[in-house]
Write a structure and sequence with these properties.
51% helix; 6 helices; 12% strand; alpha/beta; globular
Amino acid sequence: GKSSFLRNLALQTAGDGSEGTVLYFSFEEDTESTVVELVNTYVGEELTTPSRDYNNLTTITEYYRTGSGQYMKAGAERNFRDREAIFMKDYIESGRLRIFDNDFSSNELVEVIKYMAKSLTVKAVFIDYVQLLYKEGNRLQRNEELKEIAKDLRQTAKALKLPIVLAAQLN
């Protein structure tokens, strides 16, 4: 649920009509998987012929892998291709939504955010998910390390006057 919520929020922010770029850092999934999830959300339609083995995500992944819409419902492939093309043009190619799946330390992440904010108009940063971040040179217990990471990101957000949204799994 947390990743779905974060992707939806990032899509809404990127597509709200205001100037700027949304930065989406995924420490849980690679860029390709994140794009498949975002396309699925953006298309917002049940594409798959009812099956135990396929759902929208596996159908879209298969489409990207083979170019075949064989698991799509009749008439869904054309609508999917049209919506997917709009998404790619308006969000990815335009740079309104930039996805990163690098294995940054929290120190490196802060530097990347600062650098991007200097070179672009960044309207928001989304990080999925904070527990996979680590702090270089850390000698703290994990809960204290996460507290320090959150403080560093909060200071960055305040200094740049930029919303930074973190997804976390609480247990």
